[in-house]
Amino acid sequence: MLLSLSFPANLPFAQELWSYNPSEVISKVKRPLLVMIGQKDIQVDWRVDGKALEAATAKEISASFVYPENADHVLKYEEKPRDNLTAENSLRYNAQERIIDPQAKDAIFNWLIGRISK
Q1: CA–CA gap between residue 91 and residue 97 (Å, rounded)
Q2: How far is residue 43 from each of residues 46, 82, 97, 101, measured CA to CA in Å?
Q3: Structure confidence by residue, pLDDT tens digits, 43-75
Q4: Per-domain residue ranges for the chain?
């Protein structure tokens, strides 16, 4: 995957991707937001990245943070322990039998319901 990003046709996208700083962008959001990072996400570290995003929103932004225990990068339920996950797991992200993580689903619904009732 990383090699494909260095392919000449993909370089403009890749350069933009590498320079993107989510903490900088999120600090400019003026609407309530939900940030969710699965604890079994092997592409993003929920502790490191979550902490940086929480710090970026701490002063003026209405942000809710949820870190579902068994959710992967696309918020699907992952039964394997995080230590047993490899990059090959990302090949199954959209497998037909995969379901959204129940904790992630509940958090999304509850956050949306909270926004509707305000």
Answers
A1: 13
A2: 9, 12, 21, 17
A3: 889 999 999 999 999 987 789 999 999 999 999
A4: 32-116
